[in-house]
Amino acid sequence: MPDVRLASPQGKWILLTTVLGSSMALLDSTVINVALPRIGRDLDANLAALQWTVNAYTLTLAGLILLGGSLGDRLGRRKVFVVGVVWFAVASLLCGLAPNTGVLIAARALQGIGGALLTPGSLALIQASFHPDDRGRAVGLWSGFGGIGAAVGPFVGGWLVDGPGWRWVFLLNVPLALVCAPIAVRHVPESADGRAHGRFDVLGAALGALALALVTYALIEARNGSLVVAVTAVAGVAAAVAFVRVEKRSPDPMMPLGIFASRQFTAVNLVTLCVYAAFGGFFFLTALQLQVVAGYSPLQAGTALLPTTALMLLFSARSGALADRIGPRIPLTVGPLLCAAAMLLMRRVGEDADYVTDVLPALLVMGAGMVALVAPLTATVLASVDTGRAGLASGINNAAARAAGLIAVAALPLLAGMGPDAYLSPAAFDDAFGRAMVWCAGVLVVGAGVAFTTVRRLPPDCRRPECRTHGSVLAPPLEPNRSAGKLGAG
């Protein structure tokens, strides 16, 4: 039985190191978009290279995050967390020193592997270390501080890009890791799940990541229309089919397919795919639009995005309480529709756009929509499965959101007709951005329709989310498994 109290010195050290670890990954996922134009100019990169700069990280993170949770349960949560922190820092150093886009993209993929180890590991450490009476408050503080990190990420990124340069967006992780890892080794108790058994589903993880990689490559390179692209697309579909077959037959699957027997769980994951595909595409392109077309500096662009995450931090807990009273169906319908309206409002953001009259209204509506839907979405995911599988359900939902963002960043420029040098031409990018916002709004309307027709009221005795405060715009919050003390293990 874990017995560390939150008020004790050890409890404060544990909270600090888990917040630092998760903040490294959160900061990196939010600041990168603001840095993209400068990266492109400095490394002479085309739009496809910028897409891969974002997607290489998301690819390995989405493909391996479930496996990362299982590794911690079996090998030791502190050990895997520390390995993830050090791995992430080394990969960040490689990103900061990258002489060209090829090295940068490869280092970003390595970063994602580190993120897949430390992201679930930070929450699992809290679950395994703190006394049950303090665990809920510890998780709340962890999610709140992490949300603040996500909120200030674009601002910090813009300040670094405008000041010492975009490389410091990555190099900043090194001193954070030098603080985080020693604290973890000295103050965090080791823990593992003695009930975890069987082999790791390495084949399933590899096939899942391979399928995402091949499909992403095909979408990014599709404008070339070559035979290689067609073959890659077919191979990606084949890898996805093989992944499903392996998971169906494996005695210890990374993603047990039986969990999708719950119609509610399947439905809410379809909603997740729609809304986070739109969010991933929106934040990728909006950071470019504000700088390339509206003429904002990186700092101005990063600061401009603060209202969305600030609203989530302030009101996500209240939104969850409202959904408890009225059920998740209405929030999961209204939220995506508000976000769709926000994306259509963003089409007004053009050359020399005024922040107060052109940009801010869209971001406030966007924030309101995200406030309405994120907490009820998480609650519905947890309520749709047995309590003992809540950690797994949360991990699958988080991975689905990241995979949706990955595909959106790959596909949206193609659907909007962006050429390889579109971000170098304000007029061309502005036209394509308007079309992209229509695509994003359409996907959100589909998500709202799925929610309205499939989501039902939650039972009164179902599990409620522990992470009530949330600030990440690219994935829903992870939730611990209360009964087993583990996250996302199959």
UniProtKB/TrEMBL annotation:
It comes from the Bacteria. It is a multi-pass membrane protein. Residues 468-490 are annotated as: Disordered. It is found in: Cell membrane. The keyword Nucleus does not apply. Pfam families: MFS_1 (PF07690). Keywords: Antibiotic resistance, Cell membrane, Membrane, Transmembrane, Transmembrane helix, Transport. Signal peptide: none annotated. CDD domains: MFS_MMR_MDR_like. The keyword Cytoplasm does not apply. The chain crosses the membrane at residues 12-36, 48-68, 80-99, 105-126, 138-160, 166-188, 200-220, 226-246, 267-287, 299-317, 329-347, 359-383, 395-416, 436-455. Its main location: membrane. Residues 14-459 form the Major facilitator superfamily (MFS) profile domain. This is MFS transporter. It comes from Streptomyces cellulosae.
